[in-house]
Each structure stands twice: as C-alpha cells, then as structure tokens.
Amino acid sequence: MLVVHSPLCLLHDPPTEILSGKPVPYKESPDRLVRVRNALSNDPQRKYELTAVDDGLDVLPDILRVHSEDYVVYLRRAYSDWVEEGGDKQGVLPESFPHPKLPPYKLDPAKMSAIARAGMHLHRAIDILSLLNDVGGYYCFDLSCPITEDTFEAIMASARVAVRAAQLLVDGTQSTAAPHGIFALTRPPGHHAGTGVCGGYCYLNNAAIAVRCLQDAVPAGTAKPRVAILDIDYHHGNGSQEIFYSDDSVFYISLHAEGDYPYFTGSSVEEGEGPGVGFNLNIPLPQHTTGDDEYLATLDLAGKAISDYRPDYLVVSLGVDTYKDDPICCFNLTTPCYSRIGARIRELRLPTLFLFEGGYCMEVLGENVKGVLDGFLGS
Ligand code: OKP
Ligand code: ZN
User: Fold this and answer.
1) In total, how many domains does the chain have?
2) Is 140 domain-assigned?
3) Mind listing the pLDDT tens digit for each residue in 301-337?
4) In this structure, what CATH number is given to the domain that contains residue 181?
5) Is 338 contained in some domain?
6) In the list 30, 164, 175, 319, which could disulfide-bond 10, CB 3.0-4.6 Å?
7) Where's the Histone deacetylase domain (predicted)?
8) How many angstroms does the Cα of residue 63 sit away from the middle of ligand 1?
C-alpha cells in the first residue's frame, strides 16, 4: 500500500492547549505522525511504501473548492499580522468572539488586530446582519487551534498529502482489480474544519479536499463520481458534515461518541438538507460502554448504508482515538479490533482513501493505525 506523507507536516507544534480550563501540553503533536510512520515503515513484510509528496504541488485551487477564500487568507496571514502588531511569538489564538447575540459590529475589520480577526469572520463582519444567520461564520470555534509561525506551512503540506493520495488512488484504480487502498498521512487532522472555520486541532479539511479531487478526476462529460466518507474517529466530524450537508454526491457517515466533543452536532436527526437529505448519517454510540463488539456491529450497519449508496470511492477519516486508553476519549476498543475494522472496510470492495485524523495514545498509535490498514490488505 502506498503511504503519502510530508516532513513539513511535522512543523506545526504549538506548546499548549486549554483542556478543562487549564493549559496543558498540546496533544496533537508531531510525534503522532512519527509514531504512525515508523510503525508502517517497520512492517516486517514491507507492505507499506512511503512516498513523500512534492512540496511544489499547488493545491490552493483544490483547497478553495472546499474553503472560503477569506478564511484561507486569514490562515495565511494571521501569524505575520499578529507578530507585526507585537504579538507573542507563541502564536495567535482568539480570546474574544463577536457573538451573534451582541451586535451591532460596525468596526472596520481592516483596522482590527489579528486577535480580533481570529474571532471574527472577516467577510461576514462587513455585513454583520448575515452573521446573525451564520453562527458558523467564525474563524475559530474553540481554543484548540493556535496559529504559530509554522502552522500554515504544515496545514498546506497536509492538504498536499491528501490531494496527492487522491490522485494516486484514481491512477491505481484504473490499473488494478483488487480493492485498492492508499493511506494519506495527514497531520494536522481535518474533519472538524468547516468551510470557514477551524477547531478541534483542524484547520483545513483534508478529507473534503480529497473528495473534491476524486470527483474532479474524470473526463468531461462523465458523471460526477459519488463518494462515501466513513468517519471512524471517536469525535463527530462536524466540519465534514457541514461541508457536504446539502450535497447528494457525497454521503457522510460518522460513528462517534454521543455527547462528547464537539458537543453541538452529531445527532442522528441530522440527515442533511435540500438535495442532501438522506446523505448524512450520524451514529452516536455511548461513552464508557462502547467496546469492540458493539463498535463492529455498528460498523456493519454503516457498511450496509455505504453499499446501498453505491459510491465510486470510499474516503475513510481514520481516527484511532476510539482506543480504550486514549487520554481524551472514552470508548473501550482494544488493539485487535483495529484489524477487524480494516477487514470490514475491505469487504466493501471499494477504492479506498484512508486519511489520518485523531488518536492520542502514543504507545499504540502506530500499531492501531497499522492494524486497520493490515486488516484492509487482508493480512
Ligand atoms: C480532534 B480529533 C477545547 C478542547 C478541545 C479538542 C479535541 C479535538 C479532537 N477546550 N478538544 O477529532 O481527534
Ligand atoms: Zn477525534
């Protein structure tokens, strides 16, 4: 299996985040990537071929098919604006938000400080009335996404990994009969990032960017490929849901912990809207009691829904924070479960793009991710 990665993804390394009101070391660390990379490259059977993405690959057009331009401009400029204003070199994090219940907001965003812009959706700020109807219009929805000097470089590299992996999947699918899979070693993760908002360690939605690449890679006049996203990260992928909520060409399915972060989304009544009705499926599972058997039984239901949709491609948001000892999560999955998950995904017989999302138990992170991929390969 080809594994696409980029050393530039290691650059993003914020010192702290706020957890339960206290500053703690940042959990989404570069070491996560190193652990997974090492586990795959040390595979005794050498099943994984690591390939570094070309740093020159221009993915801005792909990113702009998913994210709003003002948001990407914000991500690119936030740190330098901040430092220019004398801000701390640790990076920029919002501390005040233009809450929709406190308008009017008549200040000129161009005259705002970088930290004000972090909390403010620049574009909407100009027409603040629409902000009232668009709570998703903030650049940050929580405090877990500091923008350091290297953040933009790393998130662009992560997007390049996703795009290159999608291209390779399309190329490979044309030449093989066996279910084909590619792993994109993306980091920072992406499934919490929405059209114009970061949060949950996510800045650019790598899976969504990859989906649009898969859909674009067809000759003119051919039907647009249908893509299913299977999100098996412990957390609900609120960003992926938002991006595809009214899109019937993308079926988003998530298994996640009920009532945990990101708290406000992930209910089974969120079914999509407009043409997207019926193409969003949330399957919340109970915290604390969900173990291997319950999880696999639910995954079978998701697999059935995916088969019924008859997608051309499967994109898997691969988080392994469902593990029993994950420091920020509360499911009880054991290491042997991950290869069983991979085997279930293999049974769908679809060209499959895996993208790395969450997973914070460092000791087994590599082993668990490799378990899913091994299971998919049938080994
Ligand atoms: C990312 B992924 C904010 C706490 C934020 C963020 C968890 C992000 C998980 N005070 N915790 O889905 O694994
Ligand atoms: Zn997660």
Assistant:
1) 2
2) no
3) 999 999 999 999 999 999 999 999 999 999 999 999 9
4) 3.40.800.20
5) yes
6) 30
7) 28-373
8) 22
How many other β-carbons are positioned within 10 Å of the β-carbon of residue 45?
8
Residue ID of nearest Cα to ligand 1 atom 8 = 200
Task: Calculate how far, in angstroms, residue 235's C-alpha sits from the geometric centre of ligand 1.
Answer: 8
Listed residue (32, 28, 38) closest to 370, CA to CA: 38
Residue 180 and residue 78 share a domain: no
Q: Are 93 and 41 within 8 A, CB to CB?
A: no
Q: Show the domain range for 123.
A: 69-132
Q: For 221-231, write each residue's pLDDT tens digit.
A: 899 999 999 99
Question: How close is the Cα of 235 to the center of ligand 2, in Å?
Answer: 4
Q: Look at 9-23, 107-121, 164-178, 357-371 and tell me which has the smallest mean pLDDT.
A: 107-121
Distance of CA 116 to the CA centre of its chain: 26
Is residue 16 in some structural domain?
A: yes
Out of 192, 235, 236, 256, the active site residue is: 192
- C-alpha–C-alpha distance, residues 76 and 361, integer Å: 31
For the chain, the residue count is 379
**Beta carbons of 227 and 211 less than 8 angstroms apart:** yes
Domain membership flag for residue 364: yes
Assembly ipTM: 0.96
Identify whether residues 212 and 230 lie together within a single domain.
yes
